[in-house]
């Protein structure tokens, strides 16, 4: 029954990744190559952010399906697991968007820094690392109340494998994970 439920969830998530899956494609009108290029260029520029969101949404959907399968989460576990996972990933992302971006900027200019400025950057970097570690420990502590230690370690393994597959497919030019 769990396997059937997981397959259904995966199918539903994959189907929902394609917002145009239920639309019938109309026959294309005959346009010149030049008109097509102009239309495609304008459409590409206008939809760049939308495409990134769809891509991020698709990756997130594939991640949910992959982790649910790899961890063999029950429905009850999944209901508690995903809010914790999403909350901590958002904290991690926000930390990267604020602190890490500022540190990277400093690293690009570090050759012009005085020793005092470099020391301040180093202190900021150490603070950032401590915040990341504290977030990860808090994440694991919260997960322990929801899933077993074995599933927590399976999650770490699944994250590694998912990211590895995603990177491999990115490098090969594919758009989806298998």
UniProtKB/TrEMBL annotation:
Region ranges (Disordered): 24-56
Keywords for the protein's UniProt record, in alphabetical order: Signal
Top-level division of the source organism's lineage: Bacteria
Signal peptide start and end residues: 1-21
Biased composition (Basic and acidic residues): 27-56
Protein name: Sensor of ECF-type sigma factor
Organism: Psychroflexus planctonicus
């Amino acid at each position: 029954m769990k396997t059937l439920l997981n397959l259904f969830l995966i199918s539903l998530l994959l189907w929902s990744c394609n917002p145009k899956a239920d639309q019938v494609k109309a026959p294309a009108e005959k346009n010149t190559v030049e008109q097509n290029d102009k239309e495609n260029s304008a459409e590409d520029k206008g939809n760049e952010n939308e495409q990134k969101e769809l891509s991020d949404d698709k990756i997130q959907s594939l991640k949910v399906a992959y982790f649910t399968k790899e961890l063999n989460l029950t429905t009850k576990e999944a209901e508690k697991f995903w809010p914790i996972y999403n909350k901590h990933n958002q904290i991690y992302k926000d930390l990267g968007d604020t602190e890490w971006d500022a540190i990277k900027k400093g690293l690009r200019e570090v050759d012009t820094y005085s020793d005092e400025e470099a020391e301040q950057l180093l202190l900021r970097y150490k603070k950032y690392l401590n915040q990341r570690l504290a977030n990860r420990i808090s994440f694991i502590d919260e997960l322990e109340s929801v899933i077993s230690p074995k599933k927590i370690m399976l999650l770490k393994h699944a994250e590694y494998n998912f990211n590895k597959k995603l990177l491999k497919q990115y490098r090969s030019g594919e758009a989806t994970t298998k």
